[in-house]
Records
---
Amino acid sequence: MKTTVVLGVTGSIAAYKAADLTSQLVKKGYEVVVIMTASAQKLVCPQTFLTLSRNPVITDLWTMPEWQPGHIELSDRAKLLVIVPCSANFIGKLANGIADDALSTYALSHTGKVMVVPAMNPKMWKHPAVQQNVKTLKDRGVEFIGPVSGRVACGDDGEGRMEEVPAIIARILKTI
């Protein structure tokens, strides 16, 4: 039986990199189940992840075709939740227990390891509210991968750029 990794994709321009991560994990023999926020779907099509993961993509709570709620069933078998890219908005939701979409609801039911790969403007990353939310999550055992310094999509330079896929893969392989 393959190890299941849930890949949460949020609304950041770096969302396209999650497609490469999905492909690489599948090539390494993992079952990848993707859960996308509505904002992520504005940037990358769910069909991309369906094709790469060979699994249905969860985009909302209201289209579950089976009796058992999908987020609960999935949490029973998934070893790892990786949220990549993870926006400031989603970091805030996760830190404060907000469950208002499929990904945030799943995250509250997930009992395995959680990794967050932030991607946002450097000014956002440095904001005290974001840093407090990061501290809260780290105190709960959530592992952060990045962000790294560099040029971000809007042209600014600084810490906020998403870590590169090979580094994320390396951390996942050490974890599971």
---
Amino acid sequence: MPNASPDLQAIARQVMLARGFHPDFPPEVQQQLQQLRQHPPEITAGNGIRDLRNLLWSSIDNNTSRDLDQVEVAEALPNGDTKIMVGIADIDAYVIKSSPIDVHAASETTTVYAGVRNFPMLPEQLSTGQTSLLEKQDRLSVVIEFVVDAGGEVSADNAYRALTRNHAQLQYNSTGVWLESTGSAPAKVAASAPLQAQLRIQDATAQKLKHQRHEQGSLDLETGELTPLMHGDQVVGLVPEQKNRATELIEEFMIAANGVMARMLEKVSSLRRVVKTPERWDRIVQLAAQYGERLPSDPDSKALSQFLLRRKAADPDHYADLSLAVIKLIGPGEYVLERPGEPAPGHFGLAVQDYTHSTAPNRRFADVVTQRIVKAQLAGKSNPFSDNELSGIAANCTAKEKAARKVERDMSKRLAAAALQNRIGAVFDAMVTGVTPHGTFVRALQPHVEGLLAQGHQGLDVGDRLKVKLIRVDVQHGFIDFARA
């Protein structure tokens, strides 16, 4: 055991710098923040801004989240359909295009979650304060409205500016167990019959949306990501992230809302979020064959979705590992410029043709860009971005998202190494997650930690199963080395 535990907070900052980020805000950002403190935007209705504070808006997010991007409310319609409204934080009202805060956000493009600390894209005075849709606070929002029918089909798309008020700030875990009837209601929910009814409507509608997406071929993927369990500055364990009905509720509403925004912008140049057809489909076919299943020779998201659902039902304990292999073979998403009349490649994983990012502007710059284009369209103004600007933004957002994934991966390895310091020599069931010129990488199944297969990697490919022995960890550098057992 090392004599002293490394400073994981300092390591996180070093990793950010190494991956091309600038975690410190420049002085001109502080000056702009001071101006916003003294002269905040006027939070009033009128001039195209509706007053919707009386609606029973609520939010559901992680237990520790303060950078709240969205609130939701539902209305049961007489014909059996449901109207959903998703309020999105109006970042553009506070962060003017080309201002110092905007320039910094455009460079960083994303909030990075490094396990032991977060590196926000926007200063926390905004992202966890003035622009966060916090409970009992009046906030400017862009509302995305749509109607969901009994079959989960979305219609009546609309968007507009509004004044909203979050009446209940809820958390995924406690709300999820109540929705699933496996635990009691959170105090705020238990105290309000109208809120209970509201959340039940939202949950039922989300499940219809989920069913419809899967019918179209959307992929239900789980990665088994781990969250560090901290005691002070020490990592004492790794806790798997869990999906539940509350996480699904938000996921379904955000996917639907992003589709609405994409369709609204079909007549102007805008950003799209795409996941192209997998280049390694042949390997996905081989993986399915290992389970006695046959997939078409040409990429088919619906066939893949049905295969994955069958495997999840047959072996839920190992489904995250199969999911991870498929995710690696499909490849990451990217941002692209879409001009009017030029269809984007679509999103293979979600089985949708029109998709953008618009629902997390406190955390993603692409969403701020989309918000500005939509607001300009609502106001009858020209697009605030040229095609060249959008093309450059798309490329930078894609590159920084890739860099952010590397930061998160680098830190997850360091956190995992810290949690495994005392388990040298232990043997784990594992799966191959990557075969690159730099080496073969495996992921232990319990706990789900990834490392280099330093010995015995010949003849392996993504998705292969094997037993590995932990032979070395280095917390400072995030090295976890396995040997074939």
